[in-house]
Amino acid sequence: MIELKGLTKIFPTEEGTFTALDHVDITIRDGAIYGIIGMSGAGKSTLVRCINLLERPTEGNVLIDGEDMTALSPKALRQKRRSISMIFQQFNLLMQRTCLSNICFPMEIAGVPAAQAKKRAMELLELVGLPDKADAYPVQLSGGQKQRIAIARALASDPKVLLCDEATSALDPTTTRSILRLIQDINKRLGITVIVITHEMAVVEEICSHVAILDHGKVMETGTVEEVFSNPKTEAGRKLVYPDGVILDPVKTARVVRIAFNGGSSYEPLIASLAIDCGVKVNILGADTKNINGQAFGTMLIGLPENEAEAAKAIAYIKGQPYVTMEEVRDYHG
Ligand SMILES: Nc1ncnc2c1ncn2[C@@H]1O[C@H](COP(=O)(O)OP(=O)(O)OP(=O)(O)O)[C@@H](O)[C@H]1O
């Protein structure tokens, strides 16, 4: 388990001080894929550097399996750091070394005999799907292939934790998806805990089970991805989930209801079946729904028919649907 407790980082600046992390509390259980999402300047990079103690927190603790990283001697810290591997946006491969030699590098440093390191590196090349690239140089690889080699290198020290710092931000959407699949596969097969640091919702939606929203150095919300993204409770959460806000069309309606989709059903069949099962047509005034793992989340504003009996029928029907909650919007003015 990884526990960040009251993690605070204050930088001295010309004007005084700047608080980049402000009492961050996050608990990540073993084997999770945990997303930490925030806009530019939220403190993500500072948090990453504090987790592996490349940066010393001003206050607070980083506990890994109950052991406080901030209390370790420099030697013990170097040892412990091997259990946390990182991959980066820019891959950070050594360009003058072959792929095999890049993967062997952390093992060389740890004193693993060359033959054993080479054998392990070949296994890792196989694991990341590039067994034929052992003798290639990074310059000969695509971005996605470079990240695969970087992942193989990160796994060479048999880490317990893989920290992915904007690892797919330099990749196109298709390659991003394939790298995320690989990370997910590694998490499942090797049981490695993964921390995904990103500014991209899609990345968190794609592979994370839990998420923390970081804003101005503070954790604003934490929970399962479904919980947080379906119903963001803070302004920072809403900005991330609905960057453009809920878009409404100018139709004026007497009665408006807001439907929240909490997964399990899709909004399109609901509106269609309202028409088919009840013979009631409604206006969709605005929708901001998202499909997460095949389930609908988000909210939709519906204008009910002016006929009271039809409106009541529609309300009863919607209330009877699973995974959907409904409330009347009293102050809607189109
Ligand atoms: N050494 C430093 N001295 C002073 N301020 C710093 C220092 N390092 C970071 N900051 C400030 O802390 C805040 C958080 O920076 P950080 O790089 O952690 O954010 P981020 O979420 O990673 O942003 P980005 O996605 O743009 O990289 C920023 O306002 C930054 O200017």
Explain how this protein is built.
With 334 residues, the chain is α/β, with parallel strands linked by helices. It has 2 domains: 2-240, 3-Layer(aba) Sandwich (Rossmann fold); 256-329, 2-Layer Sandwich (Alpha-Beta Plaits), CATH 3.30.70. The chain is 35% helix and 30% strand. The chain contains 11 helices and 14 strands. The chain has helices at residues 44-51, 74-81, 99-109, 114-127, 143-155, 173-190, 201-207, 225-230, 235-241, 267-278, 308-319, and strands spanning 2-13, 16-28, 33-37, 59-64, 67-68, 84-88, 161-165, 193-198, 210-215, 218-224, 256-262, 283-292, 295-303, 324-329. A 6-stranded mixed sheet has the order 6-7-8-3-9-10, sandwiched between helices. A 4-stranded antiparallel sheet has the order 2-1-4-5, with helices on one face. Helix 3 (99-109) crosses helix 4 (114-127), helix 3 (99-109) runs parallel beside helix 5 and helix 4 (114-127) crosses helix 5 (143-155). The longest helix has 18 residues, at 173-190. Residues 247-252 have low confidence and may be disordered. Bound molecules: adenosine-5'-triphosphate. One of its GO terms (molecular function) is ATP binding. It holds the Pfam family NIL. InterPro entries: AAA+_ATPase, ABC_transporter-like_ATP-bd, ABC_transporter-like_CS, ACT-like_dom_sf, MetN_ABC, MetN_ABC_transporter-like, NIL_domain, P-loop_NTPase. This is ATP-binding cassette domain-containing protein.
